[in-house]
Structures are given as C-alpha cells and as structure tokens.
Amino acid sequence: MDAQHHKETLLFVDDEENILDIASEYFEFKGFQVLTASNGREAVRVLETERVDCCFTDINMPEMDGLALAEHIHHTDNTIPVIVMTGYPSLDNTIATLKNGVVDFLIKPVNLEQMELAVRRVLRQRRLFVENILLQKEVEQKQRLEKLNRELVYKVEELNLVNRIMSDFAAMGSTTDVFRRVVDMTIEVAHADGAQFLVMNEHVAQPFEVVSAATGSVIGVEAIRLPEALVASVVGDEIPLLVDGCQGKDILPDPVRSALLVPMKIRGKVFGVLTAAVCRDDLHFSEKDLYYLSYIARNAARSIENLALYENIYQNLFSTLYAFVNALEARDPYTQQHSERVARLAILLGQEMNCTPEELDILHFSGHLHDIGKIGIRDDILLKRSGLTAEEYEKIKEHPQIGANIVGQLGLWDREKDIIRYHHEHYDGTGYPEGLQGEGIPFLSRILAVADVFDAMASGRAYRKKIEEAVVLDAIRERAGTHFDPKVVETLLQLHQEGRFPPPSGA
Ligand SMILES: [Fe+2]
Description:
CATH architecture of the largest domain: Orthogonal Bundle
Strand order of the largest sheet: 2-1-3-4-5
Strand content: 5-15%
Distance between the termini: 109 Å
Number of domains: 3
Largest sheet: 5 strands, parallel
Bound molecules: fe (ii) ion
C-alpha cells in the first residue's frame, strides 16, 4: 500500500465554487486528500465510489441539501463524521443536523484554521470510534472463542472421563476392586462428600454395605447413610433417583442436602445400589451427575459380570484338576488328603511370613495341585511299596514338570505353574528339576517344600512308616539351609512351639 492510501480523505460539499477551491488548496497543502461536490446528490455519488474519512457540507444547496446528505451518510456509514457549515444558523437547523448524526457545526464565513481544528478533532474521534468498534468485535470474537474453547475442553474432559470409566473397569482384577473403584469414582466425578455401595443378598432383607467412602475429614460415613426406605424404593423401581431441594428436606437425613441413588443390574436384575451424598449448602447434584453415575454403574456391573464369569470358569477348572489329585491320592491310603493338608500348612506358614492375599491364594492353589503331575507316572512306580530303582526314581522326579505343564497349558496360572515346578528344589541346589539354589527358588516354592515334606513324613508313605511329630520336626530342623530355606523352617518351629500348629489330620 502506498503513502497515498494512508492520506485521510475529506469531502467538501458546497454550491459556492470558491469555497471548494480554497478548502481544497488549504487541506491538500496540509496533507489531506480532498474531494469536492457541488450539492448533496453529487456527494452521494462520490461516497458510492470513494472512501471518505470526513465530510464538510453546506446546508442550503440545490437538488439535495446538507441535512438530507447528513441523514443519508448517517444511514449508510455512521463512521463518517459530518461537519455542517452554514451562514444561517437557527435552532431548528441545529437540532435537525444533530439528530442526523452531525458531529460539528461551523458558522460561515468559516475560518480555515477553525476548519482544520474541527477536522483534526472529528478525525481523532472517528479513529477512536472505529478502534472501539474493532476492539468490541475483537472482544466479542475472543469471548466467542473462549466459550468455544470451554465447550471443547468440557467435551474432551467428558470423553476422557467416559473412556476412563470404561478402561478402569475393564482392567479390574476382582469384584472387590470394582466396588472400591465405583465408590472412589463416584466421589471424584460427582464431587460427592460420600458414596456407598450397597449389595443385595437374598439372605438379608435390606441391602448391606460393601464399600463406603467419604471425602473431607468432617463428614463421617454414618452421616451419608441414606434411609433404608429410599434405597429399597430404588431397588423396587429399578431406576436412578436424584433427591434434592424441598423434596430432599423431607426425605434426607441431616446433614445430607442432595443425594443420588443408582441401581446396579446384571442381566436386568438389581444386585446393588450405588449412593452418593453432598452435605454442603452450595453444592447440589445435577441430572448430569445422575447420568455419569448411571454410566459408572453400568460399566461396573458389566465388569462384575465378566469377573464373575471368569471366576466361575477358574473355580470350575480348579475343581476339575483337584478332583484328579483327589482320585490320585485316594488310591493310596497313605497319601489321602495329603494335598489338602499341605495347602493348609503352606497357607499358615505364608500368613506367618507376611504373604499378600494374592500369594496366599497362589499357595492355596499350588498346595492342592502340587503333585498333579503324578497323573503322568505309571501306577506300578507310583504305588510301589519297596524301594525304587534309580530309573524309577528318575521317573518320579518328572512329576513337578508334568504338573507345571498341565497347569500352565491353560494359561491362567503362570505363577502357580512355577511354584509347582520348583516344589522339589533344595535350598543348597541339590534338588530337581533344575537344581535352583537359595533365593533363586521362588519363595512360595520354598514354603511349599517344607509343608510337603513335613506332611509326607508325618503321615507316612507307602515305603515307610509314619514318624512321630517331634522326630519329623527334628529332621526338618536338621535340613534347614540344605534342603529347606532356614527362615521357613524357623517359622514352622516357632508355630509348633506356640501350639498354633494344625495336627496332621491324616494321623
Ligand atoms: Fe511332589
């Protein structure tokens, strides 16, 4: 853009030609671009094609007078200031021109310097006016963008939340985890002061609490407990409920102000109710919270259903495998219930040695199934009453690996598989199948080894007589650090000393 375009353009409208000449000369000299017209109609034509920053006009002109021109400009572009010059000012004229948006009034004969001052003043005002309009537009635009942005952020948050609810519940390992997560998520999503998960049970008339949690230190769990009748009505109606406002005052216990109750269903049957409460006057649940909670409840219910299905399959498989072990043990009066006792002793040792619930679960499983590999060994070797040949002993030694293969094939019990594989390893590395040593042997296998040998010795075997408990304990103590992990042996002896030892039931 060249400098010419930056010049401000003035339009002079007057039927006296000499005034136009003088003004043109003066203002061009002062750096303005000057356009002229001899009456209103001509001026309108100029305005149609030219950009004008300020218009000076006489009032009395032929064809179209100054007032009509001012009115026209006011209606077509109200950013162009109009300055009226007249030789005959009257009150009527003045009021009429001001009504038409005229910004200044000069009385003829007009002094050029006076005109210049007026031009500079109105142009300054115009710039401010235009800037203000632009600014306003910018502010509006900014506000619109901010609103859009807020909506977008909200949508993204909503989407994230929905995704998180789905993936969280899909990743849960147990139903207890799901219950706990449901309650935590309810508090987080609905900004609740407290939430409870109540489960129905056919043996109990009212739903009982499984998990409850409360945020904030002042509100106890008792405070957010909702009336039983309210919970029962949600169970009966099978639809989510929002209790709030005046209705809430009659139904809700103090200090609860607002409450949400959502039934949880599996295959259309209500099995529990999720409740949430707020105890602050400034906070109330909304329909949106109810929607989110229903969504959480639906996902949690689906996850619980899947887990129950899985746990059922798991339990069925375990029962099938254990039935094999039972059948195996039943053929030999000396080994009847051996695995059951080994599992019990291993769990007792595990508890004493601070095993996690998961580890105890593994001990339960591998204790019961540690010898399942004996299925793969011929009866004439397995049930042999006299001493085994070296070759037969090698066959027997295959049972931990066979057992691991059986359990491992299902892909459900990888940790259990290893515990079973290594239950005949010795602490000093002289065991089988791999000759692992010390801490290289899985901890739970080291526990299982002590439990296994203790029970085998104490309850007798096909090839030898039952041994006294004290003698067995001595024998175990002697093998601490060679066959067994000394820490496990120490725990066994301590349990025995404290009289917490279960007497071998096979006696
Ligand atoms: Fe074994």
